[in-house]
Amino acid sequence: MSVPSEVVEYLDSRFPQAKKDENFKLSSGDAPAAAYLLRLLEGLPSEIVTLKGEALAEFGESIESLRFTIDAWSTGDSNRILQKLPGRGGINPLTFLRKHLANLPDSVVLPHTIELAFIPDRQLRDGLRLDIGAANRSFGAADWKGCTVVSGSVVEALLLWTLDDREAQNPGQVDTAVKTLFASGHFTKLPPTNRNFWNLSQLIEVSHHLEIIKDNTAAQCRIAKEFRNLIHPGKVVRLAESCNRGTALSALAAIEHVSKDLS
Q1: What is the mean pLDDT of residues 62-66?
Q2: In the chain, which residues fall in CATH 1.20.120?
Q3: pTM for the full model?
């Protein structure tokens, strides 16, 4: 999986002429770099390519022109060059590619992403939805660690938000819950006064004690918490575990459970 800015960076590094809109050509000697460029282009998530109309046509034709040229080189046609995109004003396909890639975002909120309408802060809501989208894309690309880590961070952010919101509406309630959990032995030591420094376990237990999240949600979050701990190399070695499809699914499930309870 790649993102537009990554492809632009590679283009500027290997084919700087594309940025200047100069008349240039690619020959068979450029095959390795051109093939890697094509691989990056094919790795772009389809939902990120939001081009329409003529821009989409230029982008699509440029990719196909690059692909046809690489195929020709691979079959022994060393005389084939990539110079102009037919019918497009004599401009090199790579110039079109760079122009349109530079206008694309590296991430977008997918239509089916959880709305999180219960969060009034639009900036926070949109940021979390972007993270959820990134986690889902990581899952689709079999990036189990990326999905597990990002999903865990979303769960943390959701629980932190809801505890801050509860404290704003009912001052002292969160602090009372913390003291109760400490007195009962659920916490071996008191969490930091600043909730921004709480770990996921503390966020889960206080949210559960206040009945903000249900029993099954707390259980799912505890599973996600253990997997999120795997981002620390020492933890992986000690447990002889690593992130996998199961950890990613569990972390994504925790997001779904928490979001449902907070809605």
Answers
A1: 95
A2: 122-262
A3: 0.68
